[in-house]
Every structure is written in structure tokens, then in C-alpha cells.
Amino acid sequence: MEVEILGKLTRVNCPPGQEEALHAAASELNQRLKQMTERTKVHNIEQLLTIAALNACYEVKALQKEMSDNEQLNQRIAHLNEALDKALGKNKE
């Protein structure tokens, strides 16, 4: 499959059935790089891609932390529900 990034076509392998997702990812990357070029006035593709990769890694880490925080919150809520059920005599032990 070919994707276009900053006016350049790149041929990439794509698992069957994932073409639409890859096309959407390429479109998102292309848009981000265009915005970054306008914002930073950097036109060196290697620098732009490095910055984009760092931003993507940062976003992934932030989402992982958020998911971990949400999981911890869900566990805390479950423990509180158990404690409430026990206090209200709803525990079936």
C-alpha cells in the first residue's frame, strides 16, 4: 500500500483489512507534520519526523499513565464497594 507524507509517496506493508486504519494514521501524521512545519518553520524532514516521533512517544506514555491511573481508581472503587456491601450486610461470605 502507498501512503503520502509531505508530498512523498511511501510504500508500506499493511495487514489485510487494516488499510483504512493505516490510511487514517498516514493522514493524521501528514496533517501533524504540516502543522509542525507552519508552527516551527522547520522544513528538514528528518527533524520534523524526529519531533513527531518524540511527540507520539510522549502521547503514548501520557495515555499509558492515564490508563494506569484509571485502573487504580477502578480498583479503589471496587474495594470501596466491597467494603460498603460488607458494612451493609450484603456480603455473601
From TrEMBL:
The domain of life for this entry's organism is Bacteria
Q: What does this protein do?
A: Activator of cell division through the inhibition of FtsZ GTPase activity, therefore promoting FtsZ assembly into bundles of protofilaments necessary for the formation of the division Z ring. It is recruited early at mid-cell but it is not essential for cell division.
Its recorded name reads Cell division protein ZapA
Q: How does it assemble?
A: Homodimer. Interacts with FtsZ.
What cellular component GO annotations does this protein have? cell division site; cell septum; cytosol
Q: Which UniProt keywords apply?
A: Cell cycle, Cell division, Coiled coil, Cytoplasm, Septation
Give the coiled coil ranges. 63-90
Q: Lineage of the native species? A: Bacteria, Pseudomonadati, Pseudomonadota, Gammaproteobacteria, Vibrionales
- Give the matching InterPro entries: Cell_div_ZapA-like (IPR007838), Cell_div_ZapA-like_sf (IPR036192), Cell_div_ZapA_N (IPR042233)
> Source species, please?
Vibrio rumoiensis 1S-45
* Family affiliation: Belongs to the ZapA family. Type 1 subfamily.
> Does the keyword Lipid metabolism belong to this entry?
no
Where in the cell is the protein located?
Cytoplasm
Q: Name one GO biological process term.
A: division septum assembly
